[in-house]
């Protein structure tokens, strides 16, 4: 996490504000689990043209596992991406990823995956 914008005081303040506002992992909550978040992730990655310092609703609080899963699935252009941000299903058996086609399609994954 040494590259810009993550090595700035602005990012550190924004990250702490997001974790204070949403201390639980977004994806784990969708699975019905209560897990403390440690990472803050851009809903639209900076590499994809996302704002490096968005408002809090442009960020997701995630546990390390979910952050790594999301980054590997959609934010790594050097790897074969699955396109699904989060694996798993809710208690009703529905996919937890708000960007999954099951949830209606049409809107981009960035628009559907908020906190």
TrEMBL record:
- Extract the ranges annotated as region (Disordered): 73-115
Q: Where is the HNH domain?
A: 25-71
The keyword Hydrolase appears for this protein: yes
Mind listing the GO molecular function terms for this protein?
Answer: endonuclease activity; nucleic acid binding; zinc ion binding
The record's section on InterPro entries has: HNH
An example of a Pfam family matching this protein is HNH
Its keywords, alphabetically, are: Endonuclease, Hydrolase, Nuclease
Identification of the protein by name: HNH endonuclease
Query: Lineage of the native species?
Result: Bacteria, Pseudomonadati, Pseudomonadota, Alphaproteobacteria, Hyphomicrobiales
């Amino acid at each position: 996490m040494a590259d810009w914008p993550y090595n700035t005081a602005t990012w550190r303040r924004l990250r702490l504000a997001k974790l204070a506002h949403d201390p639980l992992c977004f994806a784990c909550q969708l699975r019905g689990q209560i897990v403390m978040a440690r990472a803050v992730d851009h809903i639209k990655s900076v590499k994809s043209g996302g704002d490096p310092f968005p408002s809090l609703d442009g960020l997701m609080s995630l546990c390390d596992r979910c952050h790594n899963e999301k980054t590997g699935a959609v934010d790594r252009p050097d790897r074969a991406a699955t396109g699904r941000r989060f694996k798993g299903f809710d208690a009703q058996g529905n996919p937890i990823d708000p960007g999954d086609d099951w949830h209606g399609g049409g809107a981009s994954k960035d628009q559907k995956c908020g906190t």
